[in-house]
Amino acid sequence: MEIVMEQFANFLNTLDWVYIFSFILITQAIMYYRVPEFIGRGTGIKIRNRYQVLIIGMVYGIIVFFVRGYDLPKVLSLFISFLLATTFHKFLLESVFEKIFPKKDIETSKDDFL
User: Fold this and answer.
1) Residue range 40-57: mean pLDDT, rounded
2) Is-contact 17 78, C-beta < 8 A?
3) What is the reported pLDDT for 9?
4) Nearest to 27 by CA among 100, 107, 86
5) Of 53, 63, 56, 57, nearest to 80 (Cα)?
6) Which of 14, 28, 72, 90 is the most exposed, fewest CB within 10 Å of its CB?
7) Contact, 94 vs 35, CB < 8 A?
8) Which secondary-structure segment (H or E) carries 55?
9) 0.85 exceeded by the pTM?
10) What does the alpha-carbon distance between residue 34 and residue 105 come to, in Å, rounded to a whole number?
């Protein structure tokens, strides 16, 4: 049992926790202010919420990779952090955030097509 706990602790230490928490906060801010809906109205593209989260995470992961100057062995850690963050965001935080911070209502007139 001690070996399993040691390996699990090593796994948790290799994750990029700054990426995980900042990804979740950025995604929640984008979803709260309905940025994808605003872009969708202008371009006519509608993307489901789960795909929006995946796109945001992939773009942010690529930015983090180049800004921090990661080498190839660190890519696997970043990818696992991405998977953990999307799972954690979807199953746990999305339901909690919706109860604490209800979605912001944006009033638009019916004549406004942009």
Assistant:
1) 78
2) no
3) 93
4) 86
5) 57
6) 72
7) no
8) helix 49-68
9) no
10) 9
